[in-house]
Amino acid sequence: MILVTTAGKVGSETVRLLRERDVPVRVLVRDPARAAALAEAGAEIAIGDLDLPATIDVAMTGVSAVVLVSPAVPAQEINVVASAARAGIGHVIKATSKASGDSPIARRRWQADIEASLATSGVPHTLLRSNAYMQNVLALAPAIAKTSSFGSAAGKGRAGMVDARDVAAVAAEIAVGPAPHAGQTYWLTGPELISNYDVAGVLSELLGRAITYRELTFEENKDAMIRAGVPGQIAEMNAQAFSLVADGDAEWVTEDVPLILGRAARSFEQFATDYAAAFS
Ligand SMILES: NC(=O)c1ccc[n+]([C@@H]2O[C@H](COP(=O)([O-])OP(=O)(O)OC[C@H]3O[C@@H](n4cnc5c(N)ncnc54)[C@H](OP(=O)(O)O)[C@@H]3O)[C@@H](O)[C@H]2O)c1
Description:
The protein is of the alpha/beta class. The protein is built from 13 helices and nine strands. The strands form two sheets. Strands 3-2-1-4-5-6-8 form a seven-stranded parallel sheet, with helices on both faces. Strands 7-9 form a two-stranded parallel ribbon. The chain starts with a strand and ends with a helix. NADP nicotinamide-adenine-dinucleotide phosphate (NAP) binds next to helix 1 and strand 5.
């Protein structure tokens, strides 16, 4: 039995892919209504909360490997690591980013704290250190649908954006055969470096109308996200990350996705085609 903590973008696709391979999988969610499709696909639903260790311990029963993916609040993910250690779990696959204890971005410092807890837990584990998810562009989809334009503090910066479905595919692949991946860190990217000008170009072609990209300052980007309903601290961290993209922070591409999956990583064109309805 594989436990996937949370049914967000990566978690739900990981569960779906494991069920497609007929692997027994349990998913920890706060609200079972949000996991109805996963239950339909044969996943066990464990109702729990990462703030409540007792609920994690119950979900951990009979589990061989854990896919740890959540908003990466340290106390919550450290609860999962501690529960996995108590239960003697064989392997944890942790979704993370460019974690660093001295990053200006709080989320990356949090990731470093969580990774440190895994390192000291003694539980065999694998880190999936992903570049920016293509799915982040979906947050801009309502604005693109309405105004045919979008803005970001990422400037002209290019990123090795990865489709979150490929991150999930890597997590599922490792979960079914974790031994060779113990102690490894994979840097997951898409097949190429793309800027937001490229994103606008792909969307223009796909949608048959001009989509324009505007370069925003950090403050403009943060305020736009807050106006769109993103909580202040998250808007701040996202705008910081986009500003770093402008400086080349995300300008890296690896072969780790094809190496693990035996197929090419999805391109932004593939991603946009699959999600075209969101931008129309
Ligand atoms: N976005 C990027 O570009 C990017 C790049 C690299 C790495 N990452 C990493 O990827 C991870 C996030 O993955 P994701 O984007 O797939 O996540 P996501 O879509 O944001 O989903 C997060 C899930 O966590 C659940 N959740 C929140 N608090 C919870 C709690 N207390 N107990 C149980 N469940 C809870 C949410 O469920 P509810 O429906 O109940 O709210 C939601 O389903 C983070 O570690 C992030 O740093 C992201």
